[in-house]
From TrEMBL:
It comes from the Bacteria. GO terms for molecular function: biliverdin reductase [NAD(P)H] activity; riboflavin reductase (NADPH) activity. Residues 7-191 form the NAD(P)-binding domain. It comes from Saccharothrix saharensis. InterPro entries: NAD(P)-bd_dom, NAD(P)-bd_dom_sf, Polyketide_Oxido-like. This is Putative NADH-flavin reductase. Transmembrane segments: none annotated.
Length: 202
């Protein structure tokens, strides 16, 4: 499978690239800054990334906010650019990494009524950007999957992660970047994940 990964220099993106290549996929890793190894492109410019999504069987966006608490539209704007480039070049499969923390569902009362309201205020800018990004993905008409992890760790790949479709993983507070990457790579070829939001946690 030919896969294009945006945000490939980040903690999650680099794991996705590593695992996808290890599984035998042909991966184009898109980064912002030249490093002599990966492909440099401006993710905010559909014309810049267009040639790198052309012919791709799947595109992955692991782009995250550049400042944790500051106002941002990085994920919304970059995803809008990716969608335009994919449509222009006939690419159809898109997997994006979002966040499960902004989703309020059947969490325990402590988390639902105390923890998440505080986090929602503190992280209102990045979480708001992610929510708008998800809206762009859903409206794209592409074969999309949204993957929602909780707090990310640098722990090892265990393949013991849990998933939930359309809701959060009960009691799921953390997941390793390696396990998140494993799920993303698995989703790429799984038609059952198309047009689904999937939460993951260890």
């Amino acid at each position: 499978m030919r896969i294009t990964v945006l945000g490939a220099s980040g903690g999650t993106g680099s794991k996705i690239v590593e695992l996808a290549r290890g599984a035998g996929h042909d991966v184009t890793a898109i980064v912002r800054t030249r490093n002599g190894r990966d492909t440099v492109a401006d993710v905010m410019d559909p014309d810049s990334i267009g040639p790198h999504v052309a012919g791709a069987d799947a595109v992955v966006s692991a782009i995250g906010p550049r400042a944790a608490l500051a106002p941002t539209s990085v994920q919304t704007d970059s995803t809008r650019s990716v969608v335009l480039a994919m449509k222009a070049h006939g690419a159809r499969r898109l997997v994006v990494v979002s966040n499960s923390g902004m989703v309020t569902d059947g969490d325990d009362p402590f988390t639902r009524y105390l923890v998440k309201p505080v986090l929602r205020r503190v992280l209102r800018h990045p979480w708001g950007d992610m929510a708008r990004m998800e809206d762009v993905v859903r409206a794209s008409g592409l074969e999309w999957t949204i993957v929602r992890p909780p707090q990310l760790t640098n722990g090892p790949r265990t393949d013991a992660y849990r998933t939930a479709v359309g809701t959060n993983v009960r009691g799921g507070m953390r997941v390793s970047r390696a396990d998140l990457a494993a799920l993303v790579v698995r989703c790429l070829a799984d038609p059952g994940t198309v047009r689904q939001a999937i939460s993951v946690a260890n």
